[in-house]
């Protein structure tokens, strides 16, 4: 823009509130795009955060922390706490300490009987009409000599915003570490070591209520480290053996294994993209997408999750969550696209988006064209960098679009960008202007 010679306002029905710019013999028309800035505020904790969840009903955040152990105490793990913060001012409001040698492993906020099903079904299934909202904490008891924890607890705590107090309402001892907690149709889904449990909040003797098992637990591979739910489906991410799909049959009161990914993967994060497609990250800095086959011809094929996408991110991802960092424009073509945020161990934040098929095909073609004109530092080959690589496989990336590469199209000189478009679509299916518009639309997702 430093070579612009003349600039003036320009407004027509086709280009409202625009600018006209002259550079040499070139005339450009454009508008100033609104910039959405990500505001970051750091809140010192003085201890290590392990898990976090929000409770919108009380406008608070629940953060599981571990304080630094005493230097002189051998085997001291530090003290675990549930810290309650205001979700607007981030002031510390309340704390609940865990027992000695007990570490926090999971936290969730939920209201029993208010699940994703309809109200009548959820209330009937939960066995309780209690409308209280709880912070639910999962823990593991670390004992010397144990390879994996053999004991842990599930704690139900109630936060009172009137006097900023935390009250322990119920506790349940379990046989292992509680790696995940999740609301599921008004009930509590928990993974304990290698088993998936479903609990409900039920009436007990003396007019009190307690947490009881709703169905028999299901054993899933080695360690159930990751958990995601949608409708009647439960997707479990295992430490070593990738993804397992479970289905909940409410009429029978049972959880059953429906399908598995047959490839071995050491998973670090998991998300449900839609009813049939699931994404996971592994310890080799890859992303993989798998899909179930409900219409397969044989039971064996239906019991197998098919790998439909592979991609190397270069980031060790430890969380994938639905969400976005920007507001969606109502007139955007991608306004209804599902997006997911992922967090890496080095502090990076990335975005996954499930694109419409026509957009995907167009951007995939553009990506192939850009690979020939854009190179990494030192001429590093893009295709080699994005190859899926782990201990057993080394395969070309498939069915993923590299947003960083595609958005580099906007940084090319106009003449070079037009050459790329002409080489990718020699028949003129897409013009330079249309490609630029679509890439800019993609850029607005983050």
Number of helices: 7
| Silhouette | globular
Describe the sheet with the most strands: 5 strands, antiparallel
> Based on the structure, what is the oligomeric state of the protein chains?
single chain
% residues in beta strands: 35-45%
- Arithmetic mean pLDDT: 88
Percent range of helical residues: 10-25%
Main structural class: mainly beta
Secondary structure: number of strands: 29
Rg, Å, rounded: 26 Å
Low-confidence stretches: 115-128
Separation, N- and C-terminal Cα atoms? 24 Å
Structural features, described:
- The chain contains seven helices and 29 strands.
- With 446 residues, it is mainly beta.
- The strands form eight sheets. Strands 12, 13, 14, 15 and 16 form a five-stranded antiparallel β-sheet that branches. A four-stranded antiparallel β-sheet has the order 4-5-6-7, with no helix packed on it.
- Helix 3 crosses helix 6.
- It starts with 5 loop residues before the first strand and ends with a helix.
